[in-house]
């Protein structure tokens, strides 16, 4: 696709925000000339605030850009969330902000429709589903092909009827649906409906750039002093930070001064309640709450850890877990949907029953027990898993193959060949 260069167009609902375009700041107070048309090979429509979409889209756009495939972003989020990611988007030609004020925000739908009309791309990937209809209508109004891919990233336990309605409207317009795991595809609640996009279903897991992470063995003779456990996630009800805090309190009773440190990275609505629990249990000197850690600093965060723990009620696909794999950390994770079809218990992670403290305590004991070599073995196996199955290049190759099925005239096969040459 023709490149018109970096471009930003502010929406009426998101003026005076600063965005990053093609790796450098661009002020939305500078108006875009009306004849300038933002264009890219792939348009990503995603949540524009902090979270998993930012990491996934940045990883994918970097890999695609390295083989000559251009990308643009429509960032959908509250205005303050879009502003919080200024400087965070990489490898894109433009970022188009669509600010939302509430769930039923007709103004943001109109802004999205205008973005769909104005932006030129060969393929659209819907990482967030709420605004699929206006994006699709905008493309139809300008006679652009509807090469639209719906990316299903909601975990099955957290799905609501609103999510299912949004998903149905997106899959109805699309030509393909991407699921992050086979288990999520098999359990997709709308799988039996005659929706257009379901004719072409693919499992494409998220990937990480494994070269960004330093792999070092953990285990006998290589533990930190004290041992450090960590978890990185949004502080939301489905992420069980509280049980990890209770684990530290239990280990302090049992181990005294040898009690591990716990470092928690992330922010969100349950952050205050977790902080209150830390105070209540008197483990302030053993638990550190970092707040949000930028994506660029995640490798450094993981390098501080001896054990990675992910306690959760369910996942669509956890980028944090795969990043921990890339770092070669021994992993303790809840045995729930979205985890158990990625890891095998006692082969590349220790899987524990959710919402219980004692199984996590027992798992930590088994990892640090001298002479077993369990931690080193699990860490090495997790690293192999990340490299062989969940690398960013493998993810990019799968998307390029799917794009080629939708758009036979695009640059996809040539780009896939260049990607293979880089492996």
What can you tell me about this protein's structure?
The protein has 423 residues and is of the alpha/beta class. The chain has helices at residues 52-66, 79-84, 106-118, 132-141, 161-173, 182-186, 241-255, 271-281, 298-303, 319-326, 358-368, 374-389, 392-406, 412-422; strands spanning 18-21, 24-27, 39-47, 71-77, 95-99, 120-126, 148-152, 176-179, 201-203, 228-232, 261-265, 287-291, 307-310, 331-334, 350-352. A seven-stranded parallel β-sheet has the order 5-4-3-6-7-8-9, with helices on both faces. Helix 10 crosses helix 12 (374-389). The longest helix has 16 residues, at 374-389. The protein is globular, with a radius of gyration of 22 Å. The two termini are 25 Å apart.
Describe the structure in brief.
Helices cover 37% and strands 17% of the residues.
What is the fold's blueprint, element by element?
Layout lengths: L17 E4 L2 E4 L11 E9 L4 H15 L4 E7 L1 H6 L10 E5 L6 H13 L1 E7 L5 H10 L6 E5 L8 H13 L2 E4 L2 H5 L14 E3 L24 E5 L8 H15 L5 E5 L5 H11 L5 E5 L6 H6 L3 E4 L8 H8 L4 E4 L15 E3 L5 H11 L5 H16 L2 H15 L5 H11 L1
Parallel strand pairs: 3-4, 3-6, 4-5, 6-7, 7-8, 8-9, 10-11, 10-13, 11-12, 13-14, 14-15
Antiparallel strand pairs: 1-2
Key features of this structure:
alpha/beta; globular; 14 helices; seven-stranded parallel sheet; 423 residues; single chain; six-stranded parallel sheet; 15 strands; disordered N terminus
């Amino acid at each position: 696709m023709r490149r018109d260069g970096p471009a930003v167009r502010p929406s009426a609902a998101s003026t005076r925000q600063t965005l990053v375009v093609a790796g450098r700041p661009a002020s939305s107070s500078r108006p875009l000339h009306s004849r300038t048309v933002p264009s890219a090979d792939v348009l990503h429509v995603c949540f524009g605030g902090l979270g998993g979409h930012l990491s996934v889209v940045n990883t994918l756009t970097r890999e695609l850009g390295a083989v000559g495939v251009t990308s643009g972003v429509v960032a959908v989020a509250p205005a303050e969330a879009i502003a919080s990611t200024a400087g965070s988007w990489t490898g894109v030609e433009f970022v188009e902000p669509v600010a939302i004020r509430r769930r039923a925000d007709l103004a943001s739908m109109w802004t999205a429709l205008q973005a769909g009309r104005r932006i030129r791309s060969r393929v659209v990937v819907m990482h967030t589903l709420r605004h699929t209809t206006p994006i699709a209508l905008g493309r139809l109004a300008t006679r652009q092909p509807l090469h639209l891919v719906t990316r299903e990233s909601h975990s099955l336990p957290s799905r609501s009827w609103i999510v299912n309605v949004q998903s149905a409207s997106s899959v109805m317009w699309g030509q393909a649906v991407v699921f992050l795991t086979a288990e999520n595809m098999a359990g997709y609640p709308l799988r039996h409906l005659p929706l257009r996009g379901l004719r072409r279903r693919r499992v494409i897991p998220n990937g990480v750039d494994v070269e960004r992470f330093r792999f070092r063995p953990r285990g006998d003779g290589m533990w930190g002093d004290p041992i450090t456990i960590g978890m990185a996630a949004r502080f939301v009800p489905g992420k069980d930070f509280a049980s990890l805090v209770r684990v530290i309190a239990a280990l302090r009773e049992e181990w005294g001064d040898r009690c591990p440190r716990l470092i928690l990275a992330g922010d969100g609505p349950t952050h205050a309640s977790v902080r209150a629990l830390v105070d209540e249990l008197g483990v302030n000197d053993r638990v550190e709450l970092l707040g949000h850690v930028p994506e660029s600093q995640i490798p450094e965060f993981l390098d501080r850890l001896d054990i990675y723990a992910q306690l959760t009620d369910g996942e669509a696909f956890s980028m944090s877990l795969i990043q921990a794999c890339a770092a070669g950390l021994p992993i303790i994770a809840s045995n729930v949907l979205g985890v158990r079809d990625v890891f095998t218990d006692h082969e590349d992670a220790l899987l524990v029953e959710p919402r219980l403290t004692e199984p996590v305590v027992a798992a930590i004991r088994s990892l640090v027990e001298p002479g077993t070599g369990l931690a080193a073995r699990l860490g090495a196996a997790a690293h192999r898993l990340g490299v062989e199955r969940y690398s960013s290049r493998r993810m990019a190759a799968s998307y390029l193959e799917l794009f080629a099925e939708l758009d036979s005239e695009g640059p996809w096969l040539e780009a896939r060949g260049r990607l293979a040459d880089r492996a």
